[in-house]
Each structure stands twice: as structure tokens, then as C-alpha cells.
Amino acid sequence: MRLTDFWARLEEAFGSAYAGSIARDQVLSQLGGRTIEQALAGGEATHVVWRAVVAAYPDRVPSRLR
């Protein structure tokens, strides 16, 4: 998954304002206690980060984006 696709999915699932907050502020156990931004900056593959988002917010991410 390209990084632009990742951000588009995150914004579609959470809205443009909230997506930034989720990426910056929410620590996900699925990412080893890192935020989305930290995981991506640390070289984690976008598809791995996206799977962590889906696992953390199963009710928020529509099935078509999974």
C-alpha cells in the first residue's frame, strides 16, 4: 500500500481533522506502543500499520477499506 493510499483511507475512516489526531496522539499496542506517525517514521510498512488501525478500531473502519 502506498503512503498516499494509507492517508486517504485513514481520512475516509476518521475524517480529515480526526485522522491527524489519531495518527499523532493515539498509541496502539499493535504497533508496539507507538503512534501511527512513529511507526511510519520508524520504517514500518504501511500495510502493517493499516492492519493495526483496523484491529484497534474495528467498528470505525468500513469493511470496504479493510
From TrEMBL:
Top-level taxon of the source organism: Bacteria
Family matches, as InterPro entries: DUF3046
Organism in which the protein naturally occurs: Micromonospora endophytica
Entry protein name: DUF3046 domain-containing protein
